[in-house]
Amino acid sequence: MKRFIFIILLCIAVSSVKAQTNGESKISFATTIGTGLSMSTPSSTPFTWQVLGYYKLTDRWSAGAGTGLSFYEKTLIPVYGNIRFQIGRERKFTPYVESAVGYAFAPSGNTNGGFFMNQSVGIQYPLKNKMKLQLAVGYELQELERLKKHTDSFFLKEFEEKLSHHSISFKIGLKF
């Protein structure tokens, strides 16, 4: 519970920071939702929601941090660092590549989170009020451990299962 409260406070702190130079903001935010095609056994189709904060390093490079919710067979809360590279100059359809690496926490009992990674390539399209629509496809890896129980008429068995979910991810979101 302490971790969950810390993550919420971190999101509030990141969203309240403002920095400006020459009328152009160096800080931007994005939120995405997504799903994927599972490539692992046991198969679990993920659903993800992410919130990211970026700091503009140059015209093309941005770095930041993010969090959100990932729903596999268990709910996970990833916390990760992110780096983004815009391919080419800003235009109507601007391609980009992005890399996120971190750790996912498991709020439920009998589950431990694990390593989180998402590499993606996408395009962004400008909307009104400096907002941008983002579409991305990529590769996601999410590791976790869970305690499994099996009962029959003679035995009660408990064992730890280590899972590594691999999926092709599809995301859509807004950057502002």
Mind explaining what this structure looks like?
This protein is mainly beta. The protein has a single domain (35-175), classed as Porin (Beta Barrel). It contains one helix and eleven strands, in the order αβββββββββββ.
Label this structure with key terms.
mainly beta; 9% helix; 176 residues; 1 helix; two-stranded antiparallel sheet; Porin
Q: Count of DSSP E strands?
A: 11
CATH C-level label? Mainly Beta
Runs in which pLDDT lies below 50 for 5 or more consecutive residues are: 15-22
Record the strand order, biggest sheet: 3-4-5-6-7-9-10-11
Could you tell me the CATH topology label: Porin
Please provide the ordered H/E string of secondary-structure elements: HEEEEEEEEEEE
Question: What general form does the structure show?
Answer: elongated
